[in-house]
Amino acid sequence: MNSTNTFHFLLKQTREEYRMTQAEIAKRLNMARQTYLDLEYGKTQPRLDTLLALSTLFNKSVAYFAGEHPSLDGFDTMELFAELQQRYTK
Length: 90
Description:
With 90 residues, this protein is an all-alpha fold. It contains 6 helices and no strands. Helices cover 63% and strands 0% of the residues. The longest helix is centred in the first third of the chain and has 15 residues, at 3-17. The radius of gyration is 18 Å and the shape is elongated.
């Protein structure tokens, strides 16, 4: 999924999870409903202030709306397991 498609897909998905209408979000972001629709339908990309406002509104990171997911590459699970075992088996 490219970043343009990712943003508008995640925006719609998140709005639906919060059971909010497009008009409600537009009002909360102090923007015209059509401006919000353009974002959700992928016609335009968000400005930085809009992206920050969406992140705050939905309690999601900006990286979330960019479609970035944390990577566990290089994460040493055995090291974590050993540490947890040490902490909780005293």
